[in-house]
Amino acid sequence: MHRNDELYQFLLKKTWQLTEDWYANLDKSESGGIYTSDDPAVIEGVKKQNHEFHKQFCEVFNKDEETFFNDFENWIVKVAQDEDHLRTPLQLILHEFFRTQGQYLDLIDEFIEMNNGQYDYSQISRWHRIVVRTFGEVVTWFTEEYNNHSQKRLEAQQDLILELSSPVISLTNDIALLPLVGDIDTARAKSMLENTLQQCNKLGVNQLFLDLSGVVMIDTMVAHQLFQLIEALSLIGVKTTISGLRPEIAQTAVQLGLSFDSVSIKSTLSSAIKSANLIPS
After folding, report:
1. Which of 21, 224, 245, 260 is spaced 20 to 30 A from 2 at the CA atom?
2. pTM to 2 decimals?
3. DSSP bridge partners of 214
4. pLDDT digits (tens, 9 = 90+) for 216-248
């Protein structure tokens, strides 16, 4: 047998022991994350993931490097995108990776003691370097996948928040209301333009009440984008009525040279709705 084959077979027989020892010595005092769960299903799942890691990692002493990493990819991507792991602080996950690295270094030492005198220093050193180098590459790869998926999830959540922050509310079959509340920055204004056009088109709206009474301040860039929204709505056949326009916002619009000619202006949302005969005057 090749020397790597002997070590490979030794490690392969230890995979479940590695998992059980790892979980038994897991620090469960850290708050939050997958490692502190007392749910039997979660515990069983994390043990299975850990055991699968060991089955994959042992192959570093059995396969060529390219095949090894190609086969490892599924485990890395799957665990990096796992919801329980995504709720676990990354530093805790990395701590467990390096604790597992220590398990392998200890097992190699155990294997060497069992085969007293059979392996020279260069061979032992090579095995240690393989473990440390491979763990470094696996951890780096995992971290990249974890961060990429976390970023995508964050962006999706932000997109949802932006969409919910500019809801088009149907009042009748063809009349709708867009109430804006809070600060409007450039990103929100851009999202609002896209979402409002899509929602008005989807709902078959031909008149939109744009209520700004809940908006305290708008900068020049956002004011310009709001009027771009009004112009875009007119292009798809939607007439816009603005209500609750604060003096400072009107002043900003005038300074920008933005025209109110094509827009109906009402002092309050109530008066805007009354003008459409939706409620008695």
Report:
1. 21
2. 0.62
3. 181
4. 777 777 777 888 888 889 899 999 898 888 787
The encoded tokens of residue 187 equal: 């990103």
> 182: alpha, beta or left, given left = phi > 0 and alpha = psi -120 to 50?
left
Contact between 162 and 180 (Cβ < 8 Å): no
The residue whose two tokens read 């939706």 is 278
What are the Cα distances from residue 46, in Å, to 14, 19, 217? 18, 10, 50
Spell out the domains of the chain, with CATH numbers in brackets.
3-163 (1.10.490.10), 169-275 (3.30.750.24)
The 3-state DSSP class for residue 215 equals coil
- Burial of residue 45 (CB within 10 Å: 0-12, 13-18, 19+) is middle
Structure tokens of 84? 């329980």
The span from the CA of 228 to the CA of 114, in Å, is 77
Q: For residue 76, which of 143, 16, 154 has the smallest C-alpha distance?
A: 143
DSSP 8-state symbol, 166: S
Q: pLDDT tens for residues 147-178?
A: 998 888 776 666 655 555 568 888 888 899 88
